[in-house]
Design a protein that fits this description.
Two copies of one chain form a homodimer. The longest helix of chain A has 28 residues, at 120-147. Chain A has nine helices and no strands. Chain A has helices at residues 13-28, 35-42, 47-53, 56-80, 86-103, 107-117, 120-147, 156-181, 188-206. The first copy, chain A, is mainly alpha-helical and 209 residues long. Chain A folds into two domains: 1-54; 56-206, Tetracycline Repressor, domain 2. The interface between A and B is large, with 45 and 45 residues. Chains A, B: Pfam families: TetR_C_9. Chains A, B: Keywords: DNA-binding, Transcription, Transcription regulation. Chains A, B: This is TetR family transcriptional regulator. Chains A, B: Residues 11-71 form the HTH tetR-type domain.
Chain lengths: 209, 209
C-alpha cells in the first residue's frame, strides 16, 4: 500500500471524504455514492478511499460511525445534565432529533443498509454501540419523567420509534414536496415549522394532564 | 407475444403474482425481488410477469397501485362516513395506518423508489392518485376536528408526516429487534402494543384539553 503522502492527502483528508460523502447522500437523497463523484467533489484522489476505508463498504461504515457517535455523545450528555427537568430534557432532545435528521436525512436508511449487509458480529457491534445506548437513554429520559409524575406511563422503546419515525419523515419529505407541492427542497423554514409541530404533538402526547 | 393460455396462466394469476411479490418483500424486508423467486413461490411461469407487467419495474408499479388504491379507497370511505365524530374518525384512521404498515411494511420505501425511478409524468401520476388524496383526506379529518374545537390547531400536512412516520417505524423495527433484543419477527402482539401506544400518544397530542 502506498503512503498517504504519495496519494496527495492533505491534512484532514479522511474527514473531508466523510463530509463529502455525507453531502452527496444528503443532496442526492441516496445512500449510495460513486467513488468518482466523491473524488471529484472532494478534490481528493479516490485511492484515498482505499487507503482510509478499504473500500466503499468501509467508507459507509465509517460515515455511520461518525454520525452515530455524535448522536450518542450528545444524548448521553443530555441525560447526564444536572438541574434539568425531565420535560426540559425531552423537549431539547426532540428539537435535536429533528435537526439531526435535517443534517443527515439518510441516517436511518444507511443504518438499515449497513446492518443488512453486515455479518452478525458487525450488526451486533452497531446495535451495542449505537442503538442500545439510545434505548437506554430513552429509558432514563422517559422513566425519570414518569416517576416524577410529569409524563404519562409510556413504553420508552415504543416511544423511541414514535419520535424517530416522526422526525425521520424529513427524509422522504423531499420527494413528496417536489411532486405534490412543486417545492423542491427541504428548507430551514420548513425544518423549523416541522420541529415546532413535532415538539407540540409529541410533548402534548406524553405530558401528564 | 404469446397468449396467456400458452403460458399456463390459471385464473387469478395476475393477483397471485402481486400477492407473492408483496409477501416476498414483507418477509425479506426488501423492496426488490428476483423473478426466479417469484416464479418459484407463486408456482407461475416467470414469462407471466412480462405478459402482465412488461418487466420488473412494471410489476413494482402494479404492486404500488394495488396497495395505494386500497388505502385511498379506505381513507375516502372513512372521511365520507356520516355520524362519526372527528375524534372517532381519526382514532380509526390511526389504527388502520399501523395495521397497513404491518401488512405492507415496504410501502413507503417502494413508493420512494418508484417515484425516484419514474419520469416526471409518472411521478406526477403517483402524487396525484395517491399522495395528494391522502393530504386532502387529512385536511378534512383534521380540519373538521379543529373547526369543532375538538382538536388543537394543527397543520394537516405536517401531521400526515407525524402519523405515517411513526407508524412506518414498524418497517425498520424488524432489524432493530433482531440485533438489539434478539427478537426475530414483528409479531401481532407487538403490532397491537405499538398500535395502542401510537394511538395513545398521537390522540393525546392533538386533542384539545
Amino acid at each position: 500500500m502506498p503512503e498517504k503522502q504519495d496519494l496527495g492527502a492533505p491534512p484532514g483528508a479522511r474527514a473531508l471524504l466523510l463530509d463529502t460523502a455525507s453531502a452527496i447522500m444528503r443532496e442526492g437523497d441516496v445512500i449510495d455514492i460513486s467513488l468518482s463523484e466523491l473524488s471529484l467533489r472532494s478534490g481528493l484522489n479516490s485511492a484515498l478511499v482505499k487507503y482510509y476505508f478499504g473500500n466503499k463498504a468501509g467508507l459507509l461504515k465509517a460515515l455511520l460511525d461518525r454520525d452515530w457517535e455524535a448522536i450518542v455523545t450528545s444524548v448521553d450528555a443530555l441525560v447526564a445534565k444536572d438541574g434539568w427537568s425531565p420535560e426540559a430534557k425531552l423537549r431539547r432532545h426532540i428539537l435535536k432529533v429533528v435537526d439531526t435528521f435535517y443534517e443527515v436525512p439518510y441516517l436511518n436508511r444507511l443504518t438499515m443498509r449497513v446492518i443488512r449487509e453486515s455479518d452478525d458480529r458487525e450488526a451486533r457491534r452497531i446495535a451495542d454501540c449505537y442503538l442500545s445506548p439510545m434505548y437506554r437513554a430513552y429509558e432514563s429520559l422517559i422513566g425519570d419523567g414518569v416517576a416524577a409524575g410529569v409524563f404519562r406511563p409510556t413504553d420508552p422503546q415504543l416511544f423511541y420509534f414514535t419520535v424517530t419515525g416522526a422526525a425521520d419523515r424529513f427524509f422522504s419529505a423531499r420527494l413528496v414536496l417536489k411532486h405534490c407541492f412543486d417545492q423542491d427542497t427541504l428548507t430551514e423554514a420548513l425544518r423549523d415549522r416541522y420541529r415546532e409541530h413535532t415538539l407540540d404533538i409529541i410533548m402534548a402526547g406524553i405530558l401528564a394532564r
